[in-house]
Amino acid sequence: MHEALIRSFDGTELYRCTDEAPGAALGSVLLLHGLGGHCRRFDAASAAMATAGWRVTRFDLRGHGRSGGVRADVRDYRLLVKDVRLMADAALAERPGPLFTVGYSMGGLLSLLLGVQRPEGISGQVLIGAPTLETGRYRNFRRPQVQRLLMRCSPSVGEDLLTPDEAARHEYERDPWVLHAFVNRLLVEVFVKGMDDLTAALPAHRLPFLALHGSEDRIVPPASAENLRVRSASPDGTLTILEGAWHDLLHGPERDRAMELILGWLKAHAAAEA
Q1: 147 band by pLDDT with thresholds 50, 70 and 90
Q2: Per the confidence metrics, is the pTM higher than 0.85?
Q3: Domain chopping of the chain, boundaries
């Protein structure tokens, strides 16, 4: 694994990790973490993808993990999308060929926004527990009085709903790089403004995709994945619901099955690109 600090378009330093395939790579994967997380939570998933023949790039979103920016805040969700595009362009420049995004939760939302706003060079997308519908918690941020609360913090909700795996939950709770509270402005920017823009643009989404979702996901309901399947204009979309699974598929009991599905889909679509 190679670590580096990459300077974004506005000078913000972004922490990036790259895992190389042991031989000739099938292509590149850009792996995106979720709200409050960081890219090193996916060391095992990234290593599995690299072993299977993929060059994997992952990075900490601004305000998260080891990256710069105001902690747990962003003034405009489009800055996050620009950072994702920057990393996608860097991955393509460093290793020309097929590039797929794999986005977990908020990372899936950001990758979808990239897929409808600036899809150039992206061969397909894997979405893991990705939100595409507004939930009740964030609907409350539409109230007029929320404007005076934007710079206040809200605690994380649903950490005990990530996975039934107690060891994984305890590891998440003890992780010093995980954020457990967020500036309300970040939540409004991503889950209200970003979601509004995705809702309007989703019928223009045409990239191949695999959506994985747990049937018992109580953070992002499975209806989000069904909404993507129905509203995306992609001619090649696959939705797979993992029965009994919760939200964090790559850290739960179904992690091996989820990785098997992801790697199978990536390999098939890389072959189609050849």
Answers
A1: low
A2: yes
A3: 2-273
- The residue written with tokens 């600036």 in the block is 118
Residue 245 has pLDDT above 90, yes or no: yes
Give which of 251, 256, 244, 252 is closest to 214, Cα–Cα: 244
Q: With DSSP H G I counted as helix, E B as strand and the rest as coil, what are the percentages for the chain, rounded to 5? A: 45, 20, 35
Other CB atoms within a 10 A radius of the CB of residue 153 amount to 15
pLDDT at 114: 96
CA distance 35 to 42: 14
Per-residue buried b or exposed e for 242-270, using 16+ beta carbons within 10 Å of the residue's own CB: beebbbbbbbbebbeebbebbbebbeebb
CA 30 – CA 265 distance, rounded (Å): 15
CA distances from 192 to 19, 139, 201, 228 (A): 34, 7, 14, 17
* 2-273 fold: Rossmann fold (3.40.50)
- Report, as an integer, the average pLDDT of 160-189: 93
Closest to 74 in 3D by CA, of 10, 18, 140, 146: 10
99 forms bridges with which residues in the sheet? 28
